[in-house]
Amino acid sequence: VNKPRIGIIIGSIRPGRKGEVIANWVFEIASRRTDAAFEIVDLRDYPLPIYNEAVSAMHGALDPTWSMPEYVVPWAEKIRSLDGFIFVTPEYNRSTSSVLKNALDYLYCDWNNKAAGFVGYGGVGGARAVEHLRNMAAELQIATVRGQVPVSTIHDYENFTDFSPSPFLPRMIDGMLDQLVAWSNALIPLRAAAGTFEPAGVSDDDR
Ligand SMILES: Cc1cc2nc3c(=O)[nH]c(=O)nc-3n(C[C@H](O)[C@H](O)[C@H](O)COP(=O)(O)O)c2cc1C
């Protein structure tokens, strides 16, 4: 039986980022499960310029003469290989990070008809960042589960530096993963039927 492959995407590349410790903690808890295969996806490993493409990935997919820029290919291949995502997002100015938004914008079909859950962190558990990400996911045709895990940069740290997660957070991760694994599985046959590399549900005159 093929298990869904779920990427835990670290939404910060800052030196000293809190996101790496949080993502590793999510990975450790997720890896106790046997119903999916989890991996960390570090945006530091996929450096992309600030998005300035002449043709969007969605339009490109509709044009047989278009090919994806070479520097985007490793990122596209990574996302294409996954069935679902956990976005581990910081909150910067009440939204997600620019580096994560940038990475989202580069691809289209590779996100379509997959599932996602969220781990947010910040003063209010990254709640506002996650709300913005849910909107972005709607356009990318990513199905977002209800569950999300709020890590507080106030309550879940000692001296604001040492990560000391509240005891209820692992249970929230598992609740989110129950939904995420189920939806990731459910969408695999849908993608097979739709054809993965054409923009799902988009026609030429949509935009
Ligand atoms: C540019 C910037 C803007 C921020 N804005 C917010 C904010 O609006 N809300 C919030 O809760 N935290 C905010 N923070 C604090 C971040 O949540 C905190 O620095 C966190 O550690 C960032 O994640 P990272 O360390 O993984 O990059 C901001 C931080 C930065 C650098």
Tell me how many strands there are.
Answer: 7
Question: What percentage of amino acids are in beta strands?
Answer: 15-25%
Ligand types: flavin mononucleotide
Instruction: Compute the number of helices.
Output: 6
How far apart the termini lie comes to: 40 Å
Which term fits the overall shape?
globular
- Mean pLDDT, nearest integer? 95
Note poorly predicted spans.
Answer: none
Question: Strand order of the main beta sheet, please?
Answer: 2-1-3-4-5
Helix content: 25-40%
Major sheet characteristics: 5 strands, parallel
Give the radius of gyration.
17 Å
Could you give the order of the helices and strands?
EHEHHEHEHEEEH
Structural class: alpha/beta
Describe the structure.
With 207 residues, this protein is an alpha/beta fold. Helix content is 35%, strand content 21%. The protein has 6 helices and 7 strands. The strands form 2 sheets. It has a 5-stranded parallel beta sheet with strand order 2-1-3-4-5, with helices on both faces. A two-stranded antiparallel sheet has the order 6-7. α1 links the parallel β1 (5-10) and β2 (37-42). The longest helix is centred in the last third of the chain and has 26 residues, at 169-194. The model has no long low-confidence stretch (mean pLDDT 95). Flavin mononucleotide binds at residues 12, 14, 17-19, 90-94, 122-124, 153.
